[in-house]
Amino acid sequence: MNIDKIIQGKKVIGIAGHINPDGDCIGACMGLYNYIVDNFKESEVHVYLEPIPNIFKFMKHSQIIESEMTENHHHDLFIALDCGDTGRLGKFSEYFIDAKETFCVDHHETNKGFADNNYIFPKASSACELMCELVEDEKMTKTIAECFYTGIVHDTAVFQYSCTSSKTMNIAGKLMDKGIDYSKIIDDTFYTKTYHQNQVMGEALVRSKLYLDGKCVASYIDEEAMEKYHVLPKHLDGIVNQLRVTKDVKIAIFLYELTKGEFKVSLRSNCDINVAKIAVKFGGGGHDKAAGFSAFDEPNEIINRVVCEIANYVNNDK
Ligand SMILES: [Mn+2]
């Protein structure tokens, strides 16, 4: 499949990613935006995303992102990136439903192919890896490569997760050949944390508890702790990954209070247990090694319910 054929001749194009946008979804949206404005000058393009973290604002033209539906746009083509279903588009699903033609590029196992045309490969590391397959290599500028590289780095946790394939590495190598400052992208967007972010991570680690004979670890950060350390939910990236690398732990659970009383639950697996299946049981979704859902309850109640569910799997796992 070639994305040029899908874009060709479309006057008004909308691009959107999932709610709580991460590096992969932002990188895919901005890489595609830059690709279209460079090569399809007759098209008008809009990118719709909730406000993005400052670390991703280095991506060229990220200031054009529209976070509100101020005007009633009608699109000839609407492209959903890194979204498993229309619900993940949040309010922008209205634009998707209204569009003349739709296209979806995604790597979520739970994606049933909700667009007119779909490019869905659950084995791909990231939506950005799939975008690299869809665009024409000679039209890939350094600017576009920076966006897609950022997405791959974030969804693989710097080529660490098992979703990283030799294909991922080859694509990343091609992006490096475009002259991007890859170590700066990795440091500035992935590893660098503020003092307060490090402190709240410390708090989450101190609070963490082991379950199921040490095969499972869980922790949470509520509003009170976020206030104490002057951080917001979007500043808690990386905590669940640190929990995950606890020795002998197979599954890590991390909760944070998204809005009053509502917790976002992140699950990470180090083994054959598919956490997407567990997340789906609680109304969420994701990938086999990284998944999540939202729940309204006391954090310890939620943890107990998830641990009970995991117990069914842990005993059968090698
Ligand atoms: Mn992704």
Task: Explain the layout of strands and helices.
Blueprint: H1 3-7, E1 12-16, H2 23-39, E2 44-48, E3 77-81, H3 93-98, E4 101-106, E5 117-120, H4 127-134, H5 142-155, H6 166-176, H7 182-191, H8 195-207, E6 209-211, E7 216-221, H9 223-228, H10 239-244, E8 251-259, E9 262-269, H11 275-281, E10 285-286, E11 290-296, H12 299-314
Parallel strand pairs: 1-2, 1-3, 3-4, 4-5, 7-8
Antiparallel strand pairs: 6-7, 8-9, 9-11, 10-11
Helix pairs in contact: 2-5, 4-5, 5-6, 5-7
The structure holds manganese (II) ion.
Manganese (II) ion binds at residues 24, 82, 107, 126-127, 155.
Describe this structure in words.
- This protein is α/β, with parallel strands linked by helices and 318 residues long.
- 37% of the residues lie in helices and 19% in strands.
- The protein folds into 2 domains: 3-191, inorganic pyrophosphatase (n-terminal core), CATH 3.90.1640.10; 195-315, Roll (Diaminopimelate Epimerase, Chain A, domain 1).
- The strands form 2 sheets. It has a 6-stranded mixed beta sheet with strand order 6-7-8-9-11-10, with helices on both faces.
- Helix 4 (127-134) packs antiparallel against helix 5 and helix 5 (142-155) packs across helix 7.
- The chain is globular.
- Residues 24, 82, 107, 126-127, 155 line the site of manganese (II) ion.
- Manganese (II) ion binds at residues 24, 82, 107, 126-127, 155.
